[in-house]
Design a protein that fits this description.
Layout (H helix, E strand, L loop, with lengths): L2 H9 L23 E11 L10 H19 L2 E11 L4 H17 L3 E9 L3 E11 L14 E5 L4 H9 L7 H12 L5 H6 L6 E5 L3 H12 L2 E5 L12 H10 L5 E6 L4 H11 L3 E8 L3 E5 L18
Parallel strand pairs: 2-3, 7-10
Antiparallel strand pairs: 1-4, 2-4, 5-8, 5-9, 6-8, 7-9
């Protein structure tokens, strides 16, 4: 099978919202009036981001999900994506399942695949995703204000625990293990939350490298500090030691939940939003004017945190 046959068979679909999609030297897009284009790129590398024998359907889902999470953090409506694949060989069964997982999530979120590239090489997957947000309304990292509450969506640390279980570092079983592995392999991007937070949140980021690392980007860009209450973190509370679950929540990474800040006046609005969206939103701390981030234990004492999050080059 040639490169162009592969693209045509597995990755060419109708793109009604694009002026021109797959099949030319470039796609042509028309951004809606009054909107800005939000663009993000993420790469997944075999052996670094996923196991070489990963289920291709789940991998197709995750490849798109981690990019959708970036748009969610910006409050953008997903529209288009490009996909570049480096493949060791043409495995049609693998491609079929990968494309099914990719397009299942794409269809759920209104994403059209408008182009990309394929080449022979070690298995690497790269997506550039594009979305629209009303001009001047994007959620950003630089808007946190002293006095803001710090919120997170979902549960934190599940993916890190799932990975640790697969690596044999921690043993736990049953429903807790299933939930952690699902969080690792099939994260659910919080697009609906990101859209709802426009006009409510002052800043936002998606949690990909761990809460402390990603919150740190908000603090740096906003020139503020933070205090986190470790006992407030939404964590796995069954079958795993509490301190392990807390450490995974603080620094484990791969959550693809949202961390955002909002004024105290929005607390009731956000609790009502959590009921509407049917997943938890949890207040875990607050923004302060003094720089730095302090994590406090149940007695209010500052904790010593040895690991702040994942870094590819650390």
């Amino acid at each position: 099978m040639s490169e162009f046959d592969l693209i045509h068979k597995y990755f060419t679909r109708s793109t009604p919202s694009a002026e021109l999609g797959v099949g030319d030297d470039a796609a042509l897009l028309r951004v809606s009036d009054g909107k800005e284009l939000a663009v993000s790129t993420d790469m997944l590398v075999s052996g670094t981001h996923f196991f070489p024998d990963a289920d291709p359907f789940l991998l197709g889902h995750k490849t798109l999900a981690v990019n959708l999470s970036d748009l969610a953090a910006m409050g953008a409506v997903p529209r288009w994506a490009t996909l570049s694949l480096s493949l060791p060989s043409v495995d049609e069964q693998w491609l079929q399942r990968f494309s099914e997982g990719f397009f299942a999530l794409a269809d759920d979120n209104g994403v059209e695949l408008i182009g990309g590239d394929t080449t022979r090489g070690p298995l690497n997957l790269c997506i550039t995703i594009m979305g629209e947000v009303p001009r001047g309304k994007a959620l950003r990292r630089d808007g946190a204000k002293a006095g803001d509450d710090i919120w997170v969506s979902g549960k934190l640390g599940q993916a890190a625990l799932g990975l640790a279980n697969l690596q044999g570092k921690f043993k736990f079983y049953g429903e807790v293990r299933d939930e952690c592995l699902k969080a690792l392999h099939q994260p659910q991007p919080r697009v609906s939350l990101g859209l709802a937070l426009r006009g409510i949140a002052n800043s936002a980021i998606d949690i990909s490298d761990g809460l402390l690392a990603d919150l740190g980007h908000i603090l740096e860009r906003s020139n503020v500090g933070a205090e986190i209450e470790v006992e407030a973190l939404p964590i796995v509370d069954d079958g795993v030691e509490r301190d392990v679950a807390q450490q995974c929540a603080l620094a484990g990474g791969d959550d693809y939940e949202l961390c955002f800040t909002a004024p105290e006046s929005q607390r009731d609005v956000l609790m009502a939003l959590a009921e509407q969206l049917k997943f938890p939103l949890t207040r875990v701390g607050h923004i302060k004017a003094e720089l730095g981030c302090v994590v406090r234990d149940g007695e209010g004492k500052a904790m010593k945190i040895e690991k702040g999050g994942y870094d590819h080059f650390a």
